[in-house]
Every structure is written in C-alpha cells, then in structure tokens.
C-alpha cells in the first residue's frame, strides 16, 4: 500500500526570501502566488525527444511526440521535463552532439514528417517511395542518425519545392516568422547565410573559407546575392519555420498538462556555427575553452570551443541571452545552464595546450562576471527559472552567488557524499540536501542509476556499507532487486531538495526488464565522439515508446510505481477520492 504524505514545500522563510531578493525575476513569484504563498517540492525528468521513436515515425522521435510523453509523465506525478539542447550545429553536419550546436536554429530532425503531408500533399509520394527504408529505420536498436538525415533531406526538399510552387514565401504566417527571427537578434538570417556558405564549401570550417572567412564585404554580398544562394537561404528559413509552430504548440500543451518545460543552455556554441562565424569579435579565436583538472576528473579537458570575450559579453549580453529568449517565447519557463563554473571563470588553453583560469585568482572579477551573466538570464521577459550545473568542485564563492540570485544548483546523487570530513565518505542525508537544487539520479554522460547500483553491489565491502547506511538497511542483496531500486529513489524523493530529477532512462528502469539493459541505456560516453568506435552516442531509443505514452504493458508498472513514489514523498498533490 502506498504511503501518502501531504504536499511538501520549501520552508516559508526560504520562499519569502526568494520573492524579496529576486524582484527582477518573476518566476519564483509566479510559482509562489499560484500555490497560495507556497513553493511546492516536485519531481522532474529528462528526455531526448529523438529517443521517443514509434513505429509511426520516420526513423526518429519528432518533437510532436513530446506531448504524449508529458501526458504520461503528468499521470506519474512529474511536473518538470527538461530537454537537451535542440540546436543544429549546421544543416549538413552529422556531428550529433547537442552540446556542440547553434544557439537558436533547431535540428531539422525535430520535424514530424507525417504531419507536414497535411501542408504539402506531394510529400506523401516521397514517403511512399521510401517506405521500406522508413520501416527499417524504425526497427533499428539505436537511431541511425546518418541515414535518417538523408531521408529528411529528401522529404524536406520535396516539401520546399511545393512551398515555392504555391508561393507560400509571401504568406503572412511565413513573413511573420521571418520578422520574429530579425527581432530576436537576427538569428534566422545569420543561420541561413552561414548554412548556404557551409554547403558551398562542402562542410569545411568557416576559418578555411578564404576571403569569405569574415562575413561582410563585396565578395560576401556577391556570393549570397546569386539566385542559387538566395534559394538556399530561403530553404533554411523554411525548415526552421516548419519547426517553429509545432515547438510552440508543444510548450502550450505541456503547460495545460501542468508540466513545465526546461531548456538547456550549452556552455558555448559550437565552433563551426553561425553564432561564432557572425560574431567573431565576441570570441577568442586564438584560445580554446575547457575544464579545470579537478572539475570533472584528474586531467584538464580541452573542449576545442572558442571562449567568450568576457568583458564584451558582460557589456552587451544580447548574443549570450538570445537562445534563452527564443526558448522562452516558445513556452519554456526554466533553463539548465551548462557548466556554470565557466560563466564565472572560464578555463582556457593556448596553442601549446597550456591551460589557465581566465581571471586567474581575481575573486571579485569572476564573481561579478558570473553574477552579471546569470542576472541577464533572470531579468528578461519575466525571467526564467535557472539551474546551474555545479557538478564537480566549483570555485570559491560560486554556490553562494547562485543562492543569492535564486539560481538552483545541479547535483548528482552518487557524488553527494562527504568526501573530505567523513572517513567513511557517507552519503549526505537527503534531509540536508541543498534546498535550491535539482538533484539527478544520473545524467546523459554517466551510467544509469540502476547500473551504478549494480556496480556498487559488486565493489568493496566499504562501498556496499556506504549504500546500506544510505538506505537504512541492515543488509544488501547481491543484485538490484525492485525493493532496492525503489528505496534508493524514495530516500532521495523524501529529501529537502526543491527538485528531484529522474531521467527517462532511470524512470523506465522501475521495470526490472528495462533496468537489466544496464549501461545500454547510457546516452553518451563522456569524452568520446560519435565516430566508428562509439556510434551509440546520442542515438539511444526509449524501448516501446508507444506503450510508454499510454502507460500500458511493461510501462503500467512504471507509471504505478513512480506515481506511488511521488505521492509517498509529498512531491505531487495528494489525490482526493
């Protein structure tokens, strides 16, 4: 029988402080007033829309499947869904990492090809001609992203030709979309221009485009003024237009279901993107950004991204905030900010692979910089609820600065241990977890929660004892039984953190059959690229997604158990009978 706990809230003094000290950000105020002067604790999840593939799709889960997942999640007591970055690195680039992408232009694979038939009937012929390939793509264990992109190119190309024949580029709806792109710091025109040039140069980096490596000038204008280039630019605007309406509709549907959408702001835009190409003065093109040796591991990491010119970014943050504004306009109310440490004091490398902190030891310089950047995200258009990724060891003062701004901290359960002052290195009691935090059971870069538990059971007696004491048990089984998995979630959900995040791959593991997939559910192997040695990165599918949408079959038990955990922890309103 499910234990029912009354709805739990942040402490009153914490809630009132958030309202008093964050006058520029209305997000906390909206939540506070909508809940009669309270801020309720909640459960969230993370899902990659691409992973929600069904037999009705065209090789990948389109954004239109999100509402079905949201409806199922809402029934489970989940009120927040975080999506990964949805940007396109470039139109013809098959690098599939969403963290190496454009800031505002969306990946064309988000489009639901079945639905554009309603707008462009001739597309049906292309789908029919490729039916065998579509069926094959829908049956692959992991997404075949390369072949799916080829299919999408064919279908979208046919749709575009019909778009031109019907003169739809002159329609009020399309013209309004193009104008919105101009109003949002001109991202659409910049993307379209970059896209056709990159096609022209067969995908090589813009720094190797010779006299066109810098936008503007006579040669640049002559190139883009040709009829072929003008048509190409219109095509890329057309593709973004096809995504815009369905994306906004998904935001509206989620709100009606009582589910908040959270976006994801990558630390930096991809190196070979329209963002960097058109704003080269905003980036250090002679340096490379990365992470401190002790942030994610023992060795420093060079991510080969151009770091921002921090003074310019602080003085004119429009480029920094434009993707957040774009998401806000489409119905996203919250935002996970990737690698927030780097917004305060970036770690950069020179050509000799020597690394150092941007502001070195200037404590006040980096605190003021990070505060200013985050405040710009908080203050516009009613503000966004923010969660800063603070995995690893943040620089001094950063956590305090986040608290002052009302920005939540991102934490991961397996690393919330007293490494420094407890010889046993025990887990921190969930009752003492940071109030303003999103605590994740796992992330896309690490093993799923169930597989991590299995590894712990197979490790030393010390590690087993740490887990046993966290669960409050006298003994542990030799494998991850349902009771162990559910109790580990119940302990976390019963804690003090504002948000507990159970990503989709951990959510479905409430069914032991999916849990037994273990590390096969891991989305990305950190530090690898999507090349021959690791083709599975970013290509995972949620098994049997159609059944998940309806909470039937193997997902009936998932829905029942998650709902029971949410009610039992007081993170969803108590049902009335």
Can you describe what's shown?
With 577 residues, the chain is α/β, with parallel strands linked by helices. It has one domain: Glycosidases (TIM Barrel, Alpha-Beta Barrel), CATH 3.20.20. The protein contains 25 helices and 12 strands. The chain has helices at residues 12-21, 27-34, 66-75, 113-116, 123-129, 131-139, 145-165, 172-183, 187-200, 218-225, 227-256, 274-278, 293-296, 310-315, 318-329, 341-344, 363-379, 398-405, 449-457, 461-471, 482-493, 504-507, 512-515, 545-550, 554-569; strands at residues 42-46, 80-82, 260-265, 288-291, 301-305, 334-337, 347-349, 355-357, 385-389, 408-412, 437-440, 499-501. An 8-stranded parallel β-barrel has the order 1-2-3-6-9-10-11-12. A 4-stranded antiparallel beta sheet has the order 5-4-7-8. Helix 9 (187-200) packs across helix 11. The radius of gyration is 24 Å and the shape is globular. 46% of the residues are buried.
Quick tags:
577 residues, alpha/beta, eight-stranded parallel β-barrel, four-stranded antiparallel beta sheet, 12 strands
Topology readout:
Layout: H1 12-21, H2 27-34, E1 42-46, H3 66-75, E2 80-82, H4 113-116, H5 123-129, H6 131-139, H7 145-165, H8 172-183, H9 187-200, H10 218-225, H11 227-256, E3 260-265, H12 274-278, E4 288-291, H13 293-296, E5 301-305, H14 310-315, H15 318-329, E6 334-337, H16 341-344, E7 347-349, E8 355-357, H17 363-379, E9 385-389, H18 398-405, E10 408-412, E11 437-440, H19 449-457, H20 461-471, H21 482-493, E12 499-501, H22 504-507, H23 512-515, H24 545-550, H25 554-569
Parallel strand pairs: 1-2, 1-12, 2-3, 3-6, 6-9, 9-10, 10-11, 11-12
Antiparallel strand pairs: 4-5, 4-7, 7-8
